[in-house]
Amino acid sequence: MLDFLLGNDALSAVVAFGLVLIPAIIIHELGHFFLHSNMGEVPIVAYRQGSTRIEWEANWFAASLLMPKVEFLAALKETDDLTRIAAKFKVSCEAARVRKEAIG
């Protein structure tokens, strides 16, 4: 579910970084709320295995909020080091790489 934003082992990442990653988790879940539940009117069934379109959309929602296009492009002008960019936006290197491919 959150592998895209937090890396391959989301639980270990949360334990390792503590409160730093909570915004990514909350924003991902808000993506489900806004995109899939009709503002809480429609129940969402969560599947914890595999990747579904619903998870992809929640990841994209969170990535767009956590790494806004203008700010992300400005960060890319400062450095091409995705590890530094990921740290700046508090996301995984994979999330920063995918965002770069999408908008860069």
Q: What structural class do the secondary elements suggest?
A: mainly alpha
Radius of gyration: 14 Å
**Main β sheet profile:** none
Strand/helix succession: HHHHHHH
Task: Write up what this structure looks like.
The protein is an all-alpha fold and 104 residues long. The protein has one domain. The protein is 67% helix and 0% strand. The longest helix has 15 residues, at 22-36. The protein starts with a helix and ends with a helix. The model has no long low-confidence stretch (mean pLDDT 79).
Concise summary:
The chain is an all-alpha fold and 104 residues long. It has one domain (3-103).
How are the SSEs ordered, and which strands pair?
Layout: H1 3-6, H2 10-17, H3 22-36, H4 53-66, H5 69-78, H6 82-89, H7 93-103
Helix pairs in contact: 3-4, 6-7
Keywords:
mainly alpha, single chain, 104 residues, 0% strand, elongated
